[in-house]
Design a protein that fits this description.
The structure is a homotetramer. By secondary structure, the first copy, chain A, is an alpha+beta fold. Chain A has a single domain, classed as Roll (Thiol Ester Dehydrase, Chain A), CATH 3.10.129.10. The first copy, chain A, has three helices and eight strands. Chain A has helices at residues 26-41, 45-50, 125-131; strands at residues 2-9, 53-54, 57-64, 73-80, 88-96, 102-111, 113-114, 119-120. Chain A has a five-stranded antiparallel beta sheet, with helices on one face. In chain A, strands 2-7-8 form a three-stranded antiparallel beta sheet. The first copy, chain A, starts with a strand and ends in a 6-residue tail after the last helix. At the B-D interface, loops of B face loops of D.
């Protein structure tokens, strides 16, 4: 299994009148987490897209357990629990506050797409190189 | 089954550099749809919250089938397929573009919460009055 | 002078924990207003961009007079007070609530840009055709 | 003069279909900058609000010089050029990319408000204590 984590401070802009982070904003937290974790692995998403491969989201799931609040320093854990195969990759997320309380869990299924053809393509070799070692027994 | 629909025009602000609606923005489309459909049923969410009952989201699911694009006039269908019971209600959504192509499906599970105690409470009687007729055989 | 107006309902997503519309969200209200008013004039911004002319914002000003709140039906008045010349156009906005109270005033200076060269270009002829009649004595 | 700076990485969510940061998103960058700079000064905005003083924005100005792009690591400089007096404080901002190119300049005028009365109040003493030393000759 691959696991990493990123910290994100809740912005005022992200709260709603309930005083909580608006439920649609977790998607952006997950996105930032993916990008930063990829960067640590030596994968630059921006360059990947510039080179013609994009990675749109096929499916999003989110469970809201406790509210995140303004100025909370969130820890977002990202997991890849299964070696990616075919053209898809599943990321799972857990969001914690500073008191290590679990606030939110989620997952996104991404698909690698060739931007020229608009068609799914196999998980790129450089992704396998970075991630596969975490799955070898 | 209860069914209704709402139209929402895609804003420039909601697109991302792929040229598509950012995947996190569908949550707001679902929210607008819920509010407008409630209004038609004679339920004002703002007043309900002012009267001490809020309806936070417990769970969100989203499947992205085709991209929505800037200036698309989306039709968002909302379904309540099961008579609400206990303290929860499940809304299902289908998002279509002007060519009646299905772009996105989703669901949100909401819970009624007493804002004084912060605890779940039964689906309010005035919600039952409005929705239950759609489920009587 | 050219004047038109658009109505926008405040979304829950747009509020913040003060219970007001977050100050950064008026920019999107102005954008929606521009797009809708252009549409009424027979100018489709999406098609204009597809045809190679974009209209980025050079300058934004916003004064916050009274807060807009969740579910408010805002009326946003758009004014073009001076006949556009050169490559720029100035839009002015006034935001009112249902009680006709003035909540916000703003302005955006836009520039027409040739997307191939990335350089400013003169206000297109079809814009002049639509707007100039409002300025003839 | 008081001066400080904060770094913010551009999120995918913040881009639009032009491939640039959407013009309304700078307001949130300014907000994050204010909060982080205040924190360094020993002023916690969240606690200030919890203690009954809020600081809404009266006026926003933004000039867009060059576009910020996805994944850019922005440096946002914040300046307080004049010793705050009365109930207001003026923040000025400059946004730079990694190549030290100036992308955006802006300013926000904030007012201190007593949340019980909803009325403006003098700049709090603890703000003066932190900021005034930067203005003594």
């Amino acid at each position: 299994m691959f696991e990493s984590e990123v910290q994100i401070r809740v912005r005022y802009a992200e709260t709603d009148q309930m005083g909580y982070v608006y439920y649609g904003n977790y998607a952006a937290y997950y996105e930032v987490t993916r990008t930063e974790v990829f960067r640590r692995l030596g994968i630059n998403y921006k360059e990947m897209e510039a080179a013609g491969t994009m990675m749109p989201v096929l499916e999003l799931k989110c469970k809201y357990i406790r509210p995140a609040k303004y100025d909370d320093m969130l820890t977002i854990k990202l997991f890849v629990k299964h070696k990616p195969k075919g053209s898809r990759i599943l990321f799972e997320y857990e969001v914690y506050n500073e008191e290590k309380m679990l606030l939110n869990v989620g997952e996104t299924t991404m698909v690698f797409v060739d931007m020229k053809t608009g068609r799914p393509k196999a998980v790129p070799e450089f992704i396998h190189e970075k991630l596969d070692p975490y799955f070898t027994a």
